[in-house]
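SEVERITY: medium
COMPONENT: batch folding queue
REPORTER: lab tech (J.R.)

DESCRIPTION
The queue accepted two submissions in a row. Attaching both inputs and their returned structure tokens so the on-call engineer can compare them side by side.

ATTACHMENT 1
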Amino acid sequence: MAEQRWNTRDPRDAGGDRPRTGGAPHPEAPDDIARAWDELVATARRTVADGLVVGTSGNVSVRVGDTVLVTPTGVPYDRLTPDDVTGVDLAGRQTLGTLRPTSELPMHLAIHSTTDARAVVHTHAVHATAVSTLVDELPLIHYMSGALGGPVRVAPYATYGTPELAANMLEALTGRTACLLQNHGTIAYGRSLSQAFDRTAQLEWMCRVWLTASSLPGLSPHLLTPAQLAEAGERLRGYGQPT
């Protein structure tokens, strides 16, 4: 896959200027931005509370119109306030805030630019990260793989924050809404922050199940066949309440 490059340079690096918050008016309503930021911060804090992230090791984004709100790099989530809103356009140019965006901006922008995602969650969840070091694809331990589009692939390792990692991730996400990142963690996207988070938590749970089942000496877990997964996937399409 050809590499794509996104501008993730901190606007403060050029002549000491602060990232622009004025200039051309944003088509997104301020209230929409404020609500989305509040939900993003709440989701980021939930990744810590649920043990999917330690410190500031993960990141979250949500798209509002042509603006992508992202968690800033190196800032503990419990310190974020409504005044810390951080946003970029789809080319990676900072348009909101003074805090530098997450170092994983290339992955977030790759997903927002090539899918119908409205939200992305990236974590260093323990069990999922462990699985990413052992296999090239999560074994079919549970039918909920179907809810993520099929067998969950592992994107080959590349240095964090690089276009190479974003390209590897997009390849692993083909036809999927989540993947593992080798020796790194997880990434999942959805139509909302809650859906992206739920997919992240589901992936971590499946990885924990497989590691647990595989740890018993002399026993190997039964795995689903591709046909069984396909059948379950079809049923999952109609799961839950109509929207």
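ATTACHMENT 2
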Amino acid sequence: MRSSNPVFSRRGFSRDNGHAGFNAAPQAGGPAVGTNPYATNPYAPQQGEAYGAGPQAPARTDVMTIDDVVTRTAMTLGTVILTAVLSWVLLPVDEANIGRSYGIAIGAALVALVLSLVQSFKRRPTPALILAYAAFEGVFLGVISSAVSTYIAPGVVIQAVMGTMAVFAGVLFAYKMRWIRVTRRFYGFVMAAAMGFLLLMVANMLFSVFGGGDGLGFRSGGLGIIFGIVGIVLGACFLALDFKQVEDGVAYGAPREESWLAAFGLTLTLVWIYLEMLRLLSILQGND
């Protein structure tokens, strides 16, 4: 099953059209031959041979583990946070520098978008490319967060960060407790909702550009609050799908380099949640 995360859906843990990954859940006692996309490796059980049967195979050291995913995710998110803090300090949004800061932020966002698309279409994860994406994304987030905190809602950035952390922890706990069960129906619902959400946001942007004002009103007022909540809920659903992909990857013995892809996808999802949280809290404080 593919994740709705744009990284996982294009180059994630799936094996459609020859791409390595995971479609079926692992069977009890280990993945069965024919469902494990890495079953052809010399350490996987052969046809008719169960795990633990026959001669003891040497332990593999090149497979992805949860520790690998945690480490790579910490490195990627750490890069985002570091560059965000530096851009907040070095690119002030006061009246004297606001034009320059906004210009750099928009440029960084475009570069981050291009890098993310390049990585999404690559067959193998490239750590340098992923970390470069994180650095440019951090520059964009730092300037935008500084502008929102300075001109719209002072103190909202800390609240958005804490809210993002709370969503991550809550979804992880619910997933581990199996309160959230990732099925094909769940995946289909999330994808349909995400497509509808993005189409409405694009329509709102076009109306805003050509019609002026707030377009269809999805970025302010009551509608803005509703769509902010929907955006955060969608981000939480993306997290559940990403957790499922990581869990299957570890269970199937994906190559260790795939942990970079997992970190990349999780970072994209957390950035989505943070931006939606920042927008929602800004609207709420602006209405006070």
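NOTES FROM REPORTER
The radius of gyration is 21 Å.
No errors were logged for either attachment.
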